[in-house]
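ok trying again, last paste got cut off:
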Amino acid sequence: MLEVKDISFSYDKKEILKNINLSLSPRELVIITAPSGFGKSTLGKIIAGYLEPDKGEIIVDGKDIKNYKGYLPVQMAFQHPEKAINRRWKIGRILNEGWDVNRDIIEKFGIKDYWLEKYPQELSGGELQRICLARIMSNDTKYLVLDEITTMVDAITQVQLFEVLDHFRLEHNMGMVLITHNKKLIEKLNAKVIELTAF
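nice, full thing came through this time. structure:
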């Protein structure tokens, strides 16, 4: 289980998250929603270990996230995939940066072999997002934080991506946190919804 315990966080002395608590079990999908500026993405980065909270802790399978060494079982995908990769590397190197992505994952995400010899700027936003999602699907990944991952893609690609993600959630017992303010998407997904509010 992933546990978010009494998380608070401030930017420039302005508190944007206060005493946030939630839990995520394997195979569970939790949606975090709020208007822009309410700290959704910040909370996601804290859950995934990118930011350290002012107060509180993130517990992953009984262990404080700060005590993990090497590959972290919580992985995050971002709204702008081009900002999460080295643009000077070819796609093949980006895809396999953390581990050797297997053929099954490559095929499930619809990744074409010829993409691997291209540079990021030669792919569309949707294609690059597929690469960024595939590369965090290691067997060591137990929880995913997905931050507005479909903002840059068309409606058909949105459906395709969530079908694949749902497969991994259910078949590989992954817990998933989806950060979004897309009301239509929220209505389609059968999930617990947590709405961040002003305080």
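cool. Helices lie at 40-47, 91-95, 103-108, 125-134, 155-171, 183-188. The mean pLDDT is 93.
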